[in-house]
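Exercise: predict the fold of this chain.
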Amino acid sequence: MMLKNKLNELYKNGLYRKTQDIDSVNNKHIMISGKNYINFTSNDYLGLSQLKINERKMKTFMKKFGKNLSSSRLISGNSCIYQNLEESISKYFRFEDSIITNSGYDANLAIFQIFKNENYVIFSDEKNHASIIDGIKLSGLRKVIYKHNDYKDLEERLVSSENFGVQKVIVSDSIFSTNGNMANIDKLIELKNKYNAILIIDDSHHLGLNFIKSYKGIDIVTSSLSKAFGAHGGIILCTHEIKKLVVNFGRPIIYTSSLPIYNLYFIKESFEHLLNAETRREYLKNLIQYFNTQFKHLFPNQNCSNSSIKNITFDELDSASYIYNALKEKQILVSYLRYPTVEKPTIRISLSYFHNENDIDKLLEIISKL
């Protein structure tokens, strides 16, 4: 009965969420229940997930390595493909080593396990992803929350903990998933060096886009591989030593079956495409610039990020719900975010390689009329 009341509360407050069955995806179009929409919800920023599959090449690969090892990586699931991929990816991003996980969420759960039962304190941006929050919580670590992208507040908190004799760890998203804001990586590195901290960056919504020219000064990078990579999985970029610690203490790796071989194949193929995706990256950067110019003209009082993620916030659920449903009526699909994901009702827009200026014009014209 208590669980039923919990559901009723969600309905009553307009916070009930449900999944929707997707029929198919084709470039910028998404088919839901037989209706076709322009898709502004996907994180497939470079469109790599929809590249044509070379079936002959895949068949040869699967014949050589099998389909699924059906075991955790520490038992008999650590296919040699993992090692080859981890060496190639870490070399490309100029890290000493890396370890692939089953998801970006798992990467953040695993990395904080290495600090468990040690004298560490975590300084975390208040708008960090849920996986970071859960990773810290499940590791039982002491945490200090600093105001979103407020590095003065972060420094004050770092100073106030100087006499505690603890190792400080700063963690931040590079691009925040709900509002698209970008962290000031240079400032975070500066504070990390000044206060002898460890710096962890969740790079899920950036890795592969190359907006950050260098990771020098960042100790650990965690990321999903389902965004710009267009595959499925997660990764931790780090030193050899950190990787060994993750293998020994990272419960999401120790107690989870390894990824099936065909999934590793898709990561391998996506990474190879990513190496030669400069034209796609440049196109996306130009599209972001175009969106920002048009958006600022129509909505001068709204913030606009320099990333692929855009958002419009509302004071009332009814207003956000109205805009979301009105756009859907016009066959445009955006994300509708509510508490607890965000504090204020939010319409989230994701730009990708598949969109063009006409799509942006159509989207903004409808919103401005509403």
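Check your answer against the key: The mean pLDDT is 94.
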